[in-house]
Specification:
This protein starts with 14 loop residues before the first helix and ends in an 8-residue tail after the last helix. It is mostly helical.
Length: 206
């Protein structure tokens, strides 16, 4: 029987589409096997291309991994910034921010595993990207906190880091449990906890 992956082998497609196809295949292999056990042969086969085609786009496995990591980090930061930009009171912003992390962990392909559960944290290029997205999200939250409460940068960043950390750990726990609590309800529960704390900081009147 012919593999379904071979039907696309040898077909030409625009470079951007081929790159997206290869990244999708690599994501599936990395999540299934882990970085160290994943082989370029496996990724090429999953994408339905030859290894030379794969190497034309990505010189090595780490290049593939970093390209995926950049994509996922950008997605997470975008979700957080979008949540903070929404109108309404600060409780709504907290709710949207928490919901952004729940949204991220439920996205197709388990992209969150590469950001929150990477098995390459000792690799400098990976560590730099993970530290950057963690700090960027915390700083985005801190900017809103500082503006609304008058807290100095150090205290605002501490609070921003706390909210981001609470949201991502809670979202991962909820997903791993696979229980009866729906995504929206789970995010609301964590929002209630977070807002009881953040809401105690008085809003600065302008």
């Amino acid at each position: 029987m012919t593999s379904t992956h071979t039907t696309t082998r040898g077909q030409r497609m625009p470079r951007s589409e081929r790159r997206a196809q290869l990244l999708e295949a690599a994501q599936a292999v990395f999540v299934q096997s882990g970085y160290h056990a994943a082989a370029m042969d496996d990724i090429a086969d999953r994408a339905g291309v030859s290894k030379p085609v794969l190497y034309q786009h990505f010189p090595g496995k780490l290049d593939l991994y970093l390209a995926l990591l950049d994509k996922h980090c950008e997605t997470l930061e975008g979700l957080v910034r979008e949540a903070l930009a929404v109108g309404g009171d600060n409780e709504v912003r907290v709710e949207r921010t928490v919901a952004a992390y729940f949204d991220f962990v439920t996205r197709e392909g388990a992209a969150f595993r590469m950001v929150f559960e990477s098995d390459l944290t000792s690799v400098p290029q990976v560590r730099a990207r993970l530290d950057a997205v963690e700090m960027n999200c915390a700083e985005a939250i801190a900017e809103v906190i500082a503006e609304d409460t008058g807290a100095d940068d150090e205290r605002a960043l501490l609070l921003g880091s706390a909210l981001a950390g609470m949201a991502q750990v809670s979202a991962r726990h909820w997903l791993a449990q696979g229980g009866d609590i729906g995504e929206a309800e789970a995010a609301t529960i964590i929002t209630m906890l977070a807002w009881r704390g953040l809401g105690s900081f008085p809003k600065v009147e302008t």
